[in-house]
Write a structure and sequence with these properties.
By secondary structure, the protein is an all-alpha fold. It has one domain: Sodium/glucose cotransporter. The chain is 76% helix and 0% strand. It is built from 19 helices and no strands. The longest helix is centred in the middle third of the chain and has 36 residues.
Length: 483
């Protein structure tokens, strides 16, 4: 595909996106930006949420990782589904009862301002790094397909990318995101289904042959029960999935803003359960696509790329398949990546404005003005982080996302678990030290695990230990009960 065809596809998608964003965001006030005025229909949010957790990382990196990990990622996704049920029936009623705009306000009410600020800053660091890693993958793909052929620098790529994200989120916030996410979900489902269809057709595989080929392929191995030291061991992946989704969805301002936009907690629960089950099947389709990509590469004599994340872009856009596959790939990538980046930017703006700068005592107009300045600041900072990541990239991007989550979301998870499971009060001023100490202990544990624990390798379950260390730290600085 030529850079001009790719560019035209992106422009066409964004024209549709801007129209949807403009219509949805008309007359949006601060409550509309932050929580969608709490008037969203649950089935609209459920459809939007199907694709909201599927970023450009999933679209590109999950098919590529099949070559090394098989279908082992599905073990973690099963944990995601279980974790969504916990969020729906434990956290959602709590947040609705307190009528929170930022979920980190819970920490202030439960423990004090120091814990509140620590949680808000941890979220800021977590989401900024995670969102930047996800958007970096899009920039990397666009550099490969558009900017490098036109001899344009990566910096210009980053500037254009973050500007587009800012443009379609600055007006409506969550109110716009619900509808743009619905557009993304539709594009995502259509893209992955048709990509599977066209690749299967190129390989002369009917439906029955397709199922047989996928089920018999060595890369389709899903469950790993044999070796507890292996990072793919079922219970490590499953438990990591449960706690990862609790931390990265239930305790993430980005994801919970959508759920809190429903009319009531019952509607929010219905949306979460239905969307989580649907996400399981969509991830399964991405894994199936990954196996087909590797089979096709072998069949065509395509050399394995140095980075697995490049396999899908190369096959889809370098003339090995009909042009429609390349167009579908671009639409799916752009839809998934920009929607995820837009929602992250909205959440960062919300949390930084409310939690870190504070809006108490400010008029509606002053909050609007402050929010717009913060929105621009978050956009600029995200662009800087993406540029730095480009200089440091040396791993699979989806791996990087969950490694970052293990270190940054762990303390947030520990804070909320302690608050919900105990009634203890704490010495609030010590919490920043605990939030720094827990990830440092995890780093030590991970670096020495094979030496200390007979070859045991930590995977994403490191997040659980991070939360546990934080929980223990809270217990150590808790106040004695007065009789």
């Amino acid at each position: 595909m030529s850079p001009f065809v790719i560019s035209a596809t992106i422009v066409a998608y964004f024209l549709v996106l801007f129209i949807v964003s403009y219509i949805a965001g008309k007359k949006a006030d601060n409550e509309g930006f932050f929580v969608g005025n709490r008037k969203s229909s649950w089935y609209v949010v459920a459809f939007a949420m199907i694709g909201s957790s599927i970023s450009g990382v999933t679209f590109v990196s999950v098919p590529g990782m099949v070559g090394q990990n098989g279908f082992s990622y599905l073990q973690m996704v099963l944990g995601f589904v279980a974790g969504q049920f916990i969020i729906a029936f434990v956290l959602v009623p709590l947040f609705y009862q307190m009528r929170l705009v930022s979920i980190y306000e819970y920490l202030k009410d439960r423990f004090g301002n120091s814990t509140y600020q620590t949680g808000a800053w941890l979220f800021f660091i977590s989401k900024m790094l995670g969102a930047s890693v996800r958007l970096f993958l899009v920039c990397l793909t666009m550099q490969l397909l558009v900017f490098s052929p036109l001899k344009l620098p990566f910096l210009l790529n980053v500037i254009i990318t973050v500007t587009l994200v800012w443009l379609y989120t600055y007006r409506g916030g969550v109110k716009s995101l619900i509808w743009t996410d619905s557009l993304k979900t539709l594009c995502l489902i259509v893209s992955v289904v048709l990509c599977i269809y066209y690749i299967a057709a190129k390989l002369n595989l009917g439906f029955g042959d397709l199922i047989t080929t996928l089920s018999n392929h060595e890369y389709s191995k899903t469950f790993f029960w044999e070796n507890a030291n292996d990072r793919h061991f079922f219970f490590k992946q499953f438990l990591a999935g449960i706690f990862t989704v609790i931390a990265m969805t239930g305790l993430d301002q980005d994801m919970m803003q959508r759920n809190l936009s429903c009319k009531n907690s019952k509607d929010s629960q219905k949306n979460m359960i239905i969307s989580s089950i649907a996400q399981l099947f969509i991830i399964l389709m991405f894994l199936m696509l990954g196996v087909l990509l590797y089979i096709f590469a072998t069949h065509q004599g395509i050399p394995q790329p140095s980075k697995s994340d490049e396999l899908f872009p190369i096959i889809a856009t370098q003339g090995y398949l009909p042009n429609i596959v390349g167009i579908l790939f671009i639409i799916g990538l752009v839809a998934s990546a920009f929607s995820a980046a837009g929602s992250a930017l909205t959440a960062l703006t919300t949390s930084f404005t409310i939690d870190i700068l504070g809006i108490t005592g400010k008029t509606e107009q002053k909050v609007v003005s402050l929010r717009k300045y913060v929105h621009i600041l978050m956009t600029l900072f995200m662009g800087i982080v993406i540029y730095i990541i480009n200089q440091l990239n040396n791993t699979s991007v989806i791996d990087a996302v969950y490694i970052l989550a293990s270190y940054t979301y762990g303390p947030i998870l520990g804070m909320f678990v302690f608050g919900i499971l105990t009634k203890k009060r704490i010495h609030d001023r010590y919490i920043p030290f605990i939030a720094i100490g827990s990830p440092l202990l995890c780093y030590l544990l991970q670096s020495k695990s094979e030496e200390w624990f007979n070859g045991y390798q930590f995977s994403y379950e490191l997040l659980i230990f991070n939360a546990l260390f934080t929980f223990i730290g809270f217990w150590m600085v808790s106040k004695k009960n007065k009789h």
